[in-house]
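Below: protein 1.
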Amino acid sequence: MFKTILVPLIAAPLFAAAAAPAFAATPVTEPTAVRVATADLDLASAAGKKTLAKRISSAVNAVCQAPTDYRDLTALQHSMDCKVRAETAAQVHLASILELRETQLAEAGSPAHGG
């Protein structure tokens, strides 16, 4: 039924390397949305849910990239915070989509709506 799920994510903080030193450590976050394909998945099955979880995790990792210098603890913390926010947002969005889908299926099977 659904071909993709739009997963709202918050981008990892971006550090402006060319900015003035006073602004170099100021993270800038920008909202990002990533489409995660679901057309080939049976979301009623455990295997389908597992595959979707992997796809969401990959999308989160793509948006919330780890810092190149792991000694930069501030950047590392921002990346980890981004991942937590993104995973939470994705799960909330997915739950609302699945709930809407179940409601639509229930209404389609209802004699009052079936005609």
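Below: protein 2.
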Amino acid sequence: MSGGSAKSGDAARRARMSVGWMAMTVLVDQAMWPAHGRLWAHLVSDESLAELHAFAAANDIPRRAFDRDHYDVPEDALPRLVAAGATAVSAHELTRALIASGLRVRARDRR
């Protein structure tokens, strides 16, 4: 097995977690969005909003943090979310995955 394949396999394993009977794929980007005196990141699913809500609920992320296609999560929650199975990716990778999933709500559609 090449180094690249092992890395891909590791990333896939980290991206999967179970909540009850359901396997999930969730992604989180770097905290870079300032608001309320802290930095915030985005938490998304590349499968469904149902699994995103289930992951967030299982990890004590309040529903009020949901914004149409993602959760806004504070920087200090990132290690806990990754430990729970979220995959840390760049903001660019997160956006591409969200668009590819068909779950992305464009800025102009947020009005």
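Residues 1-23 have pLDDT under 50 and may be disordered.
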